[in-house]
Amino acid sequence: MRLRSALLGATMLATPIAVQAQPVDGLYVGLGAGGNYKQDQDVKNVNRTLGPLTGPSVLQNSGLKLRTNTGYLGLASVGWGFGNGLRVEVEGNYRYNRVYQLRGTPFPTAGGGSDQTYGAMVNALYDIDVAGYTGLDWFPLLYVGAGVGYAWQQFHNAHAYGTNFPFFFKTNDSDGNFAYQAILGSAFPIPAVPGLAITAEYRFFGVIGDTNYRSAVDFGLTPATYSRTFGSVKLKEQLNHSLLLGVRYAFNQAPPPPPPAPVVAPAPAPARSYLVFFDWDKATLTDRAQQIIREAAENSTRVQYTRLEVNGYTDTSGTPAYNQRLSVRRAQAVAAELVRDGVPRNAISIQGFGETHLLVPTGPNVREPQNRRVEIIIR
User: Fold this and answer.
1) In what order do the strands lie in the sheet with 308-312?
2) Could you name the CATH architecture of 2-250?
3) How far from chain centre, in Å, is Cα 118?
4) Is the pTM of the predicted complex or chain greater than 0.70?
């Protein structure tokens, strides 16, 4: 029942979730290490094949459990990412725990030696780009996965016995069976090294079925006489819970695109046409007129030009001949001011148009301020 539930949970974890994934595309390698907690392992069967004829020869469904201390594990993997969030990898792992005691005896128990497990796994994983899905840029990349393979459980000088209780064993044997695991992890990319990420994982690892170990066993003698009795110990499935920290490096990983360059608004282009207005029947420059001419002179140095055209105009009051002369005087006054502001005289052309080319159309003999003007054009 526990095996079926674990496999179902691993399958559900491995099912891709419809979110945007940050893909690993191509070859990658990974390393991890951490702590391993192994659940108490049931002792299914104890069999004595040689020794004194006192006590039972087989202890079936003993109710005993082999307990180990919390240990450690390490693993290495090589995988391939398909660029869409899906990855597959092969993995080798190693778990180490110290034998602590036999549970299920009515008296205190003691033990020692090591319980080591070697595994070779094939894993399928799916990366979930939570940041891309939710807009939370600070959120790490999550991934889920499941794996299947084979594992060997090896004991080295493993022994346990009960004080004033008729059972003792010692073994240096190994046995193996099929294994499975479920994986839940997160990856924190290192921006300074494209492809490199720090990983943090939880793994549930199980070895299915029974494993059998040749052992010195004793149902009725003291621990000091264990070598006179031989047989085997059969253990049920083993279940492990592991927390790891690691690193993962994806080869040929493209660096993230640089942030877009800030958009700099272009400087406004200097104006190429300026209007200077005059009082009625005047060719003298007001303060405002001098300010406009100065601006035209300054802007002429910021653009390439061939000449500055200075064109004078009048309104329709007065005779056409008089207005023609007045328009020329106005143009000459503006040109002289441009020269004082630094514009070369040979770059300026002067022309008077009198009361023609009205800015505001009017009838004859109309005093219209908008028509009493000089236009500066930068060519």
Assistant:
1) 273-277, 373-378, 308-312, 348-352
2) Beta Barrel (2.40)
3) 32
4) no
